[in-house]
Specification:
Strand 13 and strand 14 form a beta hairpin. By secondary structure, this protein is an alpha/beta fold. Helix 2 packs antiparallel against helix 10. The strands form five sheets. Strands 4-10-9-8-7-5-6 form a seven-stranded mixed beta sheet, with helices on both faces. Strands 13-14-17-16 form a four-stranded antiparallel beta sheet, covered by helices on one side. It contains 14 helices and 17 strands. It has two domains: 133 residues, Alpha-Beta Complex (Aspartate Aminotransferase, domain 1); 255 residues, Aspartate Aminotransferase, domain 2 (3-Layer(aba) Sandwich), CATH 3.40.640. The chain is globular, with a radius of gyration of 22 Å. The structure holds 4'-deoxy-4'-aminopyridoxal-5'-phosphate. The site of 4'-deoxy-4'-aminopyridoxal-5'-phosphate (PMP) has 14 residues, from helix 4. The site of 4'-deoxy-4'-aminopyridoxal-5'-phosphate has 14 residues, from helix 4.
Length: 406
């Protein structure tokens, strides 16, 4: 099947604009993806026709709002192949999903002297919540290292896991190195020792067809805005039997069954973890985004992104003095690089003037930068609406910047 990128681009209104008088080349998809028109339409339609708070109303709009929200939950369930909608918790993003698990799982299962393992390539969102937990509980944080290509040293888990290890938190896809981690293997290894696994799927949820049952993940965190949905919405998938055993992380409306000053009882799953007014419009728009992605063809999109990755890698490597940070065996379309001594910020600022949006800095992965002894990188992260012509523009742009600094 030919991947019709022109047709796809026409679905994303933002892509046709000019920046600094140049056609926008958007290569910052790791930070956030652009939204197809159908997602924008869902938001507008909801606010102009349906909007009413969910779960608490007897009137028609509230009923419609509630149905749309719960339908969105079912769409997410299907998208990740969870067993039940009670395993789908809407959050504000991957960060909130991870914090939820670090707090609630931590309260139930982590005590003094216990151990939590994170990998060396985690986003700060999958480090700091665990550090906070370990400080609170006097537990120990251990680190699974990666090698200089950016491959996790999975075999080291055998040494790291002890009978005090409670959970491993690892990303599916690294946002700064582009590594696709062997999470199924990691989960199997962890489970062999009775250890639970949280997968940070902020970058990974769109990397192929996701099947949480096949992975046997205990928890999987998803970011809505990185999978063509709006900001402010995310998902935590958790196995029902685990979610039932862990306490709520925030208190408020909707998450309760009964409240008195003597005692509060909690709502059933998944509502126990959704305190306050949910982002129901975000959830509905996320569902539209997931359906859109499925209609494009997830496997075809990933194949096309891999082609772009290969093309970009080869093209960038023709530039003398350009070094790619992150050369793992399995990679997704995220390329971090440095050119000679040129500071990533200088590169980013000048490329911006050419209409090319890339990200510079540590990408919220300071330990990754420390591993390579660098301050930051230039990162081009590609999506299925990008083209080889855009990659050519990036390569030309980088060459120009290099000339300026020669
Ligand atoms: N983990 C990874 C690997 C990420 O790339 C990001 C976002 N940069 C996050 C977590 C945080 O996601 P969110 O913005 O949904 O909180």
């Amino acid at each position: 099947m030919v991947f019709n990128v022109d047709k796809i681009r026409s679905d994303f209104p933002i892509l046709s604009q000019q920046v600094h008088g140049k056609p926008l080349v958007y290569f910052d998809n790791g930070a956030t993806t652009q939204k197809p028109k159908c997602v924008l339409d869902t938001i507008e339609h909801f606010y102009t026709k349906i909007n009413a708070n969910i779960h608490r109303g007897v009137h028609k709009l509230s009923d419609e709002s509630t149905k749309a929200y719960e339908q969105a939950r079912e769409t997410v369930r299907q998208f990740i192949n969870a067993k039940s909608t009670c395993e789908i918790i809407f959050t504000s993003g991957a960060t909130a999903s991870i914090n939820l698990v670090a707090f609630s799982f931590g309260e139930a299962f982590v005590g003094e002297g216990d151990e939590v393992i994170v990998s060396e390539m985690e986003h700060h969102s999958n480090i700091v919540p665990w550090q906070l937990l370990c400080e609170r509980k006097k537990a120990k944080l251990k680190v699974l290292p990666f090698d200089d290509n950016g491959d996790l040293m999975v075999e080291k888990l055998d040494e790291l896991i002890t009978n005090r290890t409670k959970i491993i938190a690892v990303n599916h896809v690294s946002n700064s190195l582009g590594t696709v981690n062997p999470i199924k293997q990691i989960i199997a290894k962890a489970h062999a020792h009775g250890v639970k696994v949280l997968v940070d799927g902020a970058q990974g949820a769109k990397h192929g067809i996701l099947d949480v049952q096949d992975l046997d993940a205990d928890f999987y965190a998803i970011s809505g805005h990185k999978i063509y949905g709006p900001t402010g919405i995310g998902v935590l998938y958790g196995k029902q039997e685990l979610l039932e055993q862990i306490p709520p992380w925030q208190g408020g409306g909707d998450m309760i069954a009964t409240v008195s000053f003597e005692k509060t009882t909690f709502n059933e799953l998944p509502f126990k973890f959704e305190a306050g007014t949910a982002n129901y419009i975000g959830a509905a728009a996320l569902a539209t985004a997931l359906k859109y992605y499925q209609s494009v063809g997830i496997e075809a999109a990933v194949r096309y992104e891999n082609e772009l990755l290969e093309y970009a890698t080869q093209s960038l490597l023709t530039i003398n003095g350009l070094r790619i940070i992150g050369t793992a065996k399995e990679k997704t379309s995220i390329i971090s690089f440095l050119v000679g001594n040129i500071h990533p910020f200088d590169m980013g600022m000048i490329l911006d003037k050419m209409g090319i949006a890339i990200r510079t800095g540590t990408h919220c992965t300071e330990p990754v930068m420390a591993h390579f002894g660098i301050d930051g990188t230039v990162r081009a992260s590609l999506a299925f609406y990008n083209t080889k012509e855009e990659i050519d523009k990036l390569v030309e742009g980088v060459k120009k910047v290099k000339m300026m600094f020669a």
